[in-house]
Write a structure and sequence with these properties.
Length: 82
C-alpha cells in the first residue's frame, strides 16, 4: 500500500472538508479557517494539528503578527484533496 493510500484512508470527513477549504488558496490563518468552516478557533486548531501530524498541512507563524498562525497544504495534502 502506498503512503498516500494509507493517509487517505485515515482522513476523516471533517479533515477532508478542512483540506478542501485550504485548497481554495495558497495560505490561510487558523482564524480564517474557523470562520470559513463555521467552527470555533479551538476546533479549527485541533483539526489543523491533526492534519499537520499526518503531514498534510504545515503551520507557520506570521512574520508580521506572531500571534497569527498561517496554514497551507503540503504536497501530500494537495494530493489527498485530488
Amino acid at each position: 500500500m502506498t503512503t498516500l493510500r494509507r493517509i487517505s484512508s485515515s482522513i476523516t470527513p471533517r479533515q477532508l472538508e478542512v483540506l478542501g477549504f485550504l485548497a481554495r488558496r495558497e495560505q490561510w490563518s487558523v482564524g480564517e479557517v474557523a470562520s470559513g468552516l463555521g467552527v470555533s478557533s479551538a476546533a479549527a486548531t485541533k483539526a489543523v494539528a491533526r492534519l499537520e501530524r499526518k503531514g498534510l498541512v504545515s503551520r507557520t507563524i506570521d512574520v508580521m503578527d506572531r500571534r497569527c498562525v498561517n496554514v497551507r497544504l503540503t504536497r501530500a495534502g494537495s494530493d489527498a484533496v485530488r
